[in-house]
Amino acid sequence: MPPKAPYQHRNPIVRYALFSIGWISFVLGMIGLLLPVVPTSPFLLLSAACFLRSSPRFYVWLTEHPWWGRYICYFLDGQGIPRRIKVLILCMLWIMILSSAFLIVKIMWVSVTMIVIAAAVSIYIVRLPEPQE
Which pTM does this prediction carry? Predict the structure, then answer.
């Protein structure tokens, strides 16, 4: 069940802009599933926010999707991320960041910046609440 009741914005220009941004964000999120540098979750959350006000049909589809719908609803309701998903996110984050920083990037300050950003993201993810499932 979607966490919020979707509705269509009255202004058609705003509605079509939100709909377009929602789909672009969704596509970028799907690309993020395949590419380690592109994040997935922020793009799917942006898609949900855009579809919430532009397309009730796609909002319900996104929030009731069998793979990621439950996690989007948890986050939108302020319940956070389940512990199992946090561990998966953190493992993938650190594997990709460390392999990129040490094997691909040859500029030291860029590698250090990547690791600092990964540490900040890790702190944010660890501090998120965990829903009661």
Answer: 0.74
